[in-house]
Amino acid sequence: MRRRRVTLLLFEVTLVVALVSARGPPPPIIRPRDGDPFDSLPKGFWQEFSSPFTDTPDGGDTDDSAESLETTTREPQPFFEEPNTTTNVTTQLGSHVHLHCRVNDLREKTVSWVRRKEDQLQLITFGRHTYSSDSRYQLEYQPPNDWQLLIEFANERDEGHYECQVSSHPPLVFLVYLTVVVPRVEIVDERGGAGADKFYKAGSTIELKCVISKVPQPTTYVTWKHGQRMLNYDTSRGGISVKTDLKPGGAVSRLYIANANRHDSGNYTCSLADVAATTVTVHVLNGENPAAMQHGSSTRWTPLAWTTFLALLPNLVVIIR
Q1: How many other CB atoms are there within 10 angstroms of residue 304's CB atom?
Q2: What pTM, to 2 d.p., does this model score?
Q3: Is 312 exposed, middle or buried (0-12, 13-18, 19+ CB in 10 A)?
Q4: Residue 205 and residue 190: Cα distance in Å, rounded?
Q5: pLDDT one-digit tens code per residue, 286-296
Q6: Residue 47, Cβ neighbours under 10 Å: how many?
């Protein structure tokens, strides 16, 4: 209001000066008296007023602009719930595994999963739709913010890099490296010896030990078979027992068969679910002095072996001569 009042006053003065100039020479310049309303004008007023078409915003307009900026809020951007944007996941061969991707403030953005192989990207899911031709891959959304990629019956080919991407600007990427562990299954005898064949006397106790390692998720689901017959819960023969103990990263399962006879000969298989298995052949030999016996990886000279060696000795001498 003050500025407008001063402007109006100046306009009236200019009009008076124009009328006076039309009547005759301008009067001498008179300094303003004390109390003159022009005394209250700021020193830089005339420079600002020199351009009548320039409108300088007053303090009120500045306050309004500041208030407008304060009331304007930025749209929240999506962000991952995990503090780190990379993670490692380990699973066992043949198991189901979930790769998690938790996104907050997603709003209208879209989450997708892709598989990275060297320099190539393979789209797996986009939003809630699955585009992979492999039916083992599925998108499972767990409210409120977890976009899970499910991989069923994981195999060695599934191992590698996966990316959870958010369609923001710039895009957000969460990296997951999946490791698929293949369990190791080995059958040893009571002396710890490994081998494809095990020899036992008739009437003795067959003792086989199945050592399972490289198992990230310990399990007691270890089965023994004689041929196609399951032995874990066999009660028809009697004298059969199975004991399985969990160990860090694996398990140890022992098979005991008391009073072995020739019907107990054959292939014995130790299996970890349907993931891994190994087989040995058991030979039950009749008589107090069996023709051949072998324990573990060591080999013993039996009477039959000595007889065969002595029979072939003359031929060896002739060949040497």
Answers
A1: 12
A2: 0.58
A3: exposed
A4: 10
A5: 865 444 454 43
A6: 9
